[in-house]
Amino acid sequence: MFEYDFMQHALIAGGIVALLAGVVGYFLVLRGQTFAGHALSHVGFAGATGAVLIGLSPMGGLIAVTLAGGMAMGYFGDRLQGSDIAIGSVLSLSLGVGMLFLHFYTSYATQATALLFGNVLGVGTDTLWWLGIMALVSLVVLACLARPLLFISLQPELAEAKGVSLRLVSMLFLAIVALATAASVQIVGVLLVFTLMVGPGATAQKLTVRLGPGILLAALIALAETWLGIALAYFTDWPTSFWITALSATAYMLASLQASRNT
Amino acid sequence: MEVLRLDRVTVSFRGRRVLDDVSLTVDQNQFIGVLGPNGAGKTTLMRAILGLIPPDAGKISVLGQSGLRGNPDIGYMPQVRSAGTGQRLCGRDFVAIAHGGHRWGWPRLDKRQWQEIDRALELVDARELARRPLMELSGGQRQRLLLAQALIGSPRLLLLDEPLISLDPRHQHGVIELVRQVSKQLGITVLFSAHELNPLLPAIDQVLYLGHGQLALGTVDEVIQPEVLSRLYGAPIDVVRHNGRIFVMSGEVDVEKEEHYHDV
Ligand SMILES: Nc1ncnc2c1ncn2[C@@H]1O[C@H](COP(=O)(O)OP(=O)(O)OP(=O)(O)O)[C@@H](O)[C@H]1O
Ligand SMILES: [Mg+2]
User: Fold this and answer.
1) Cα separation of A198 and A187, whole Å?
2) Is A242 exposed, middle or buried (CB count within 10 Å of its CB: 0-12, 13-18, 19+)?
3) Where does the chain cross the membrane (chain A) (predicted)?
4) Which of B190, B120, B177 is CA-nearest to residue B154?
């Protein structure tokens, strides 16, 4: 299967995105903000389809809108807590508006499926570069941010007292989440971002109580699930996204069983 | 040596004065019980000392420095403890995130820094405990980890906001004794807020009583007096001593017990 260009691209793109999503997802789960990833991908859908409609690249629209959404969520922060219904409405509206944009666009069906469920087997060289740059930038920023981010996640009042700006740190983190989300959409699509971002982080936290090993494990689990998913898709001809979600759910269930046996 | 000084400090929220032109000085190596009814301003006082709430007037200085948020000389255990996030993390890593947590970068500690964490854990007798994830710990065990966390960075002033909350009397005693030992061992001054005076009596050097925007600082015998407390409560207060215990009464009601109804 390695002889085909499209498979090589898929494995490289999948690998890049998995590492990014796994690491970012670990922090997302730790912060109890998993909903944010889910929300950003939905908002991004409207951005991507809107960009297509006015003749721009869907990836550009996706990134721009998720970034704006992430920064806004970070800015309003605590005030968003408890407004599930408002957020839910915005999510549905974004999907609806996205569908409307697509309606005006001719090659409706392929675009829609690719955005909604991902299209890892159709990744071109351009996209590959984009993903690489996004992942690099996100991981570098995250590496600089990790200390205060953990501090504000676990001990916000103490962090504030030690001079950390809660707003700045959470805005920067959600900007990274936005980039990771936009990248994940390329692999598993808007609807299944949860699988790649949250699954591995949650699984890792069931398996180890240590921070460093947990982050590493999350990245490795995401990588394994993605590569295995792509390989299984190649051999079965079933959609990659299906296999990744199946692997992600299985891994989480096995980890939960293991964790409950240990206690 | 002087650790803390408040010079005619006023702190208010939307025009309502929580601290109204108050002054005090605190020396080193003092264990001070901070008391007062709900809403008296115990938390506000601590947050003002930390530089999180700027005073409307007056000056707060800690070890000669004033207006400095993130003063490394102050250790802090906040009252509102965010339970829920990071519950699967082990206690040791949880404590360690406070070490240089305000600096940018990847959370890597070197050997010497880990030794510092372990020393703090040892001080509160939580080395073993700290291997377990937070979600498996009881309230009192968590309290010990939080205390270890507050001790990181060798603070000279420790602000503990209601460390006894949700602890039964036996564990309350354990925490008070622990704080007293640690503070005497390290020579640090502790402000320890609580809702009941009696459990603190054997341990504290002084009482800081807050109420009605005013405060009184001194030994138990100086502060727990009808005239002083009547001024702070804005109502006639009786002080009844019985079997080494002190009851602060307003009419027939024990005001400390009374508060607990409001707490729930
Ligand atoms: N951020 C805020 N905005 C407006 N008012 C506030 C704020 N924080 C505190 N207050 C008010 O200031 C007063 C003092 O509050 P504070 O939390 O300091 O009391 P406390 O003594 O710690 O009470 P408790 O025993 O309940 O912890 C209260 O009346 C409270 O309503
Ligand atoms: Mg308080």
Assistant:
1) 15
2) middle
3) 6-28, 35-54, 85-108, 128-150, 171-194, 214-235, 242-260
4) B120
- Reduced to 3 states (helix: H, G, I; strand: E, B; else coil), residue A181 is helix
CATH number at residue A241: 1.10.3470.10
Q: Are strands B74-77 and B157-160 parallel, antiparallel or unpaired?
A: parallel
**C-beta atoms of A154 and B86 within 8 A:** yes
Residues of B with CB under 8 A from a CB of A: 47, 50-52, 69-70, 72, 74, 76-78, 80, 82, 84-86, 88-90, 93-94, 97-98, 100-107, 131-133, 136, 149-150
Q: How many CB atoms lie within 10 A of CB B185?
A: 9
| Cβ-based neighbours of A126, under 8 Å, separated by 6 or more | none
Each residue of B164-204: pLDDT tens digit?
987 888 888 988 999 999 899 999 999 999 999 999 999 99
CA atoms of A190 and A181, how far apart (whole Å): 8
Query: Where are chain B's structural domains?
Result: 83-154
Q: Please tell me the total count of domains within chain A.
A: 1
Residue whose tokens read 């809403």: B39
Q: ipTM more than 0.95? A: no
